[in-house]
Write a structure and sequence with these properties.
alpha/beta, Rossmann fold, 6-stranded mixed sheet, 4-stranded antiparallel sheet, 10 helices, 25% strand, binds adenosine-5'-triphosphate
């Protein structure tokens, strides 16, 4: 269970960021008073446009960032006070994770196992399963720099799941992947659900969310404007698919409807 209570994250803006965001404000409210419960065993999708606050929210859940206000509990552990315990519960994956190009997936897997003091039996068992599932076996001894983007991403997934976590956080899991690799990642999310794991993923790909999510949350300008099932969002917006439903809520909340 993930319990997010009144979460707010405010970034101080450097002059470079001010230019990038085209603003004179000294701060940016990336997440604005967001409350949400994610149940055990569900696949939850956080949907939003670029800059909506998805990555910030996921990084706070993963203990990589601290909230400005509010709190997050993962399996009953506070992400700020009990970060170590939270990190044992979760696997965090983003397409931005870059493996060192000079080493092989097999070497890096074992390196991170030792670094993170993960029991050998757990990690070895996971390595066998994950390398087989993602067809890494034949590439495991090649240098990362020789691997395709897809193989690289699959190796990064294997490495982030070596401790067989109960909760898996995917930030844009299929971003930059070809259609075949993207499908294998989505199928893996379904497999995690069958194993009763909890998955929280961010995406701006509506068809991807429709394929795998039990419930979704729609985040616009840092505010959570909807939480519910796919049929609930379609019912609420009187639309036929998630993309239309998203647009309706987007325009409503931007004051354009
Ligand atoms: N370190 C930072 N310093 C200042 N502002 C930041 C920082 N990180 C993110 N932001 C700003 O906070 C807002 C939310 O960013 P965030 O990355 O959480 O959004 P997102 O929904 O994940 O978007 P994307 O899909 O583009 O990754 C954006 O306006 C972003 O520019």
């Amino acid at each position: 269970m993930i319990e997010i209570k009144n979460l707010t994250k405010v970034y101080k803006l450097s002059s470079k960021m001010k230019k990038e965001l085209k603003t004179n404000d000294d701060k940016k409210i990336a997440v604005n008073n967001l409350s949400l419960s994610i149940k055990d065993g569900e696949v939850f999708g956080l949907l939003g446009t670029n800059g909506a606050g998805k990555t910030t929210t996921l990084r706070i859940i993963a203990t990589l960032l601290k909230p400005t206000e509010g709190s997050v509990e993962v399996s009953g552990f506070d992400t700020v006070i009990e970060g170590d315990k939270v990190r044992k519960e979760i696997g965090f994956l983003t397409s931005e994770i870059k493996l060192d190009p000079n080493f092989s997936p097999d070497y890096l897997y074992d390196f991170f196992r030792e670094l993170r003091s993960i029991p050998k039996d757990v990690a070895t068992n996971q390595k066998e399963k994950l390398f087989k599932y993602f067809d890494i076996e034949n590439f495991k001894d090649k240098k990362v720099e020789e691997l395709s983007t897809g193989m690289n991403q699959k190796a990064a997934i294997a490495i982030s799941l070596m401790h067989n976590p109960n909760i898996v956080i995917f930030d844009e899991p299929t971003s930059g992947l070809d259609i075949v690799t993207a499908r294998s990642v989505l199928d893996y999310i379904k497999l995690l659900k069958e194993q009763n794991k909890t998955v929280i993923m961010s995406t701006h790909n509506m068809s991807e969310a429709e394929k795998v999510c039990d419930r979704i949350g729609i985040i616009i300008d840092g505010k959570l404007v909807f939480v519910g099932t796919l049929s609930e969002v379609k019912e609420k917006t009187k639309t036929k698919d998630l993309e239309e439903a998203f647009f309706t809520l987007y325009l409503e909340n931007k004051g354009e409807l």
